[in-house]
Amino acid sequence: MNVAFFLTPKKDVVYETINSTMRQALERMEYHRYTAIPIIDEEGKYVGTITEGDMLWKLKNTPGLDFKNTNKVSIKDVARNVRNTPVHVRSDIEDLISLAVNQNFVPVVDDNNVFIGIIKRSEIIQYYYNKSLKVIE
């Protein structure tokens, strides 16, 4: 089975660009109730994942920084502590599962390392759960 089976396409994914501000990322994450989102660069390539914790540590460790002026801080200036390793769209299911064990979502890239979407761990679990129910019946 190909990992593309589980793909949530980029158009349906909440993400930020590397030039976005902390404020933009925080507000987007709050609105969607996410704790982490992918970051892509100007060429559409996946560059990492930013978390609420990353931004909280930036607020705590930057003198004079408060929520009001987070619109002046680029997310490229926020240290990221979580590395969600991407999977290639043509990878096999074993590669995907080995990453999903430790990641809530797995970013998916194409042949040019361009971000094309994510695969949610919950969808993998749901698929195999449903499959196991069919075996039991």
UniProtKB/TrEMBL annotation:
<dbReference type="InterPro" id="IPR000644">
    <property type="entry name" value="CBS_dom"/>
</dbReference>
<dbReference type="Pfam" id="PF00571">
    <property type="entry name" value="CBS"/>
</dbReference>
<dbReference type="InterPro" id="IPR051257">
    <property type="entry name" value="Diverse_CBS-Domain"/>
</dbReference>
<dbReference type="InterPro" id="IPR046342">
    <property type="entry name" value="CBS_dom_sf"/>
</dbReference>
<protein>
    <submittedName>
        <fullName>CBS domain protein</fullName>
    </submittedName>
</protein>
<keyword id="KW-0129">CBS domain</keyword>
<feature type="domain" description="CBS">
    <location>
        <begin position="7"/>
        <end position="67"/>
    </location>
</feature>
